[in-house]
Design a protein that fits this description.
3-stranded antiparallel sheet, mainly alpha, Glycosyltransferase, 18 strands
Length: 391
C-alpha cells in the first residue's frame, strides 16, 4: 500500500510529462498531432487547435504545480503555435492547421474558442505574459458577440463567422443546435479566465452559465444532464453521458468555489452532488466507469478521459459528503487506471479505451481529441488536494 498522491505523482512525472514532451516538433512548431495504436508517429498529421490548447493548458498548469522550468518552455512552445492558429483578420482560432501552417479546417467552433481561453489563461498565470491574457480577453469578447444569442451559446461557424453545421460536437445520430458539452467548456474556460484576470464581465457570464445549467441542461427527474438540444433546449435523444456528468460535478463545483457566492452555491451544489451520486450508482464498478447509456443500452467502454474524470468527481464528492463509498471509488478508479488503462509499452501513455476485461481498443494514443488534459489534470488535482487515501 502506498499513498495515492505518491503514485499519481510518479505517473505524471515519469510517464505523462515525458511522453508529451517527446512529441514536440521544433521544425514545424507545436506537437505531433497523431500517434497510432502501434505507436507510429504521424508528423504529417494536422495540428488540431483543441489538442494544442490542451497541451498548452497542461504544461502551464504542470509548471505552476511542479516549478520545473522545462515545463514553462514547453508551454511557451505551445503558446507560439496557438498564436499561429489564430485568424488575426477575422478573429478566433481555427479548427486545425497543417504542419506547414496552412489552414486545414477553418471552422470556428465555440468549443474550440473556449479551450483556447482556458489555455491562454493558464499560460498567463504560469508566465505572466500579458499578451496571453489580452488574447484570452479578445476571445472572450468574440465569443460573447459572435457565439451566443439570447438563449445561450451557439456552436459552429465558418472561418468568416457564418453559421455552419455542428457535426463536430454532435454524435449519436443527431444534429444539435446547442450542446451540454460546449456550455460546460465555455464555463471551464471562463472560470480559468476569471481566475487569471478577475474581470467582472467574466464573472457575470459565469453566473449566467450556471443558470442555464440549472434551468435547461440538468434534468432533475432523471438526476442527469441532457446532452443534445434543439435551439429551444428540447432534448434530442435519450442519452446519459456518465463521463460528462461526473466531470461537471466537480468542474462546476470549482466554478462555485471561484465565484464564492453562498446563495449560488446553495442552489447549484446539490444538483452536482446528485449527479455524482447517480453516476456512482449507474456507471461505477470495480472494473472502471462506464462511458454512457443511450436509450437504455450501456456503452461499457472504459474511455481514458472518463476514468480520469470519475476519479476526480468522486474525490470531490468525498470532500463534500465524507462518505466512504466515494473515497473507496477514488481508490478503485486509480487501481483500474494504473493496472489496466495505462499502456505498459515503452514510449506510450494511456490507451484511448479498454473494455472491462482489459482488452484495449485499437485507437490512436494521440489524435485531435486524445490529449494530456484529462489525465494530466487528474494528476495535478490529486497533487493539489493531497487526499489521505492508500492504494
Amino acid at each position: 500500500m502506498a499513498k495515492l498522491t505518491e503514485q499519481v505523482r510518479r505517473e505524471l512525472v515519469d510517464r505523462i510529462i515525458p511522453f508529451w514532451k517527446g512529441l514536440r516538433d521544433d521544425v514545424n512548431g507545436g506537437y505531433i498531432g497523431q500517434v497510432d495504436f502501434d505507436l507510429t508517429r504521424r508528423p504529417e498529421a494536422d495540428r488540431g487547435c483543441i489538442l494544442n490548447s490542451r497541451i498548452l493548458w497542461f504544461f502551464s498548469e504542470a509548471f505552476i504545480s511542479l516549478g520545473d522550468a522545462s515545463l514553462l518552455d514547453e508551454a511557451r512552445h505551445a503558446f507560439e503555435m496557438l498564436v499561429r492558429m489564430t485568424d488575426e483578420a477575422n478573429g478566433g482560432v481555427y479548427w486545425a492547421l497543417r504542419p506547414d501552417g496552412s489552414v486545414a479546417d477553418g471552422t470556428k467552433h465555440t468549443y474550440n474558442q473556449a479551450f483556447a481561453i482556458y489555455a491562454l489563461s493558464a499560460y498567463y498565470r504560469a508566465s505572466g505574459d500579458g499578451e496571453a491574457l489580452r488574447r484570452a480577453m479578445d476571445l472572450f469578447d468574440l465569443v460573447e458577440t459572435r457565439c451566443r444569442d439570447d438563449g445561450g451559446y451557439l456552436e459552429a461557424f465558418t472561418a468568416d463567422w457564418r453559421p455552419a453545421g455542428n457535426e463536430k460536437l454532435s454524435e449519436n445520430g443527431v444534429m444539435a443546435g446547442r450542446t451540454m458539452n460546449t456550455l460546460l467548456h465555455v464555463m471551464e474556460g471562463y472560470t480559468g479566465l476569471y481566475e487569471a484576470g478577475g474581470d467582472v464581465r467574466v464573472r457575470e457570464k459565469l453566473v449566467q452559465i450556471l443558470d442555464i445549467l440549472e434551468r435547461h441542461i440538468y434534468n432533475p427527474e432523471k438526476r442527469r444532464q441532457e446532452v443534445f438540444f434543439d435551439m429551444d433546449y428540447h432534448t434530442l435523444i435519450d442519452l446519459h453521458s456518465f463521463g460528462h456528468d461526473i466531470e461537471t460535478s466537480w468542474l462546476a463545483d470549482h466554478t462555485l468555489d471561484v465565484l464564492a457566492d453562498d446563495a449560488l452555491t446553495a442552489r447549484i451544489r446539490p444538483l452536482l452532488l446528485e449527479m455524482a451520486d447517480h453516476t456512482h450508482a449507474a456507471a461505477f464498478t470495480d472494473r472502471g466507469f462506464a462511458n454512457e447509456c443511450e436509450r437504455g443500452v450501456v456503452d461499457q467502454k472504459r474511455v481514458w478521459w472518463v476514468q480520469a474524470e470519475a476519479l476526480l468527481g468522486f474525490l470531490n464528492a468525498w470532500r463534500h459528503t465524507g462518505e466512504a463509498r466515494y473515497r473507496d471509488a477514488v481508490a478503485s478508479q486509480w487501481r483500474f487506471i494504473r493496472d489496466v488503462l495505462v499502456d505498459p509499452r515503452q514510449g506510450s501513455e494511456w490507451y484511448w479505451y479498454v473494455m472491462p476485461d482489459g482488452t484495449p481498443g485499437n485507437l490512436p494514443i494521440v489524435e485531435p481529441w486524445k490529449c494530456p488534459y484529462h489525465n494530466g489534470r487528474m494528476a495535478l488535482e490529486v497533487l493539489r488536494r493531497d487526499p489521505d487515501i492508500e492504494v
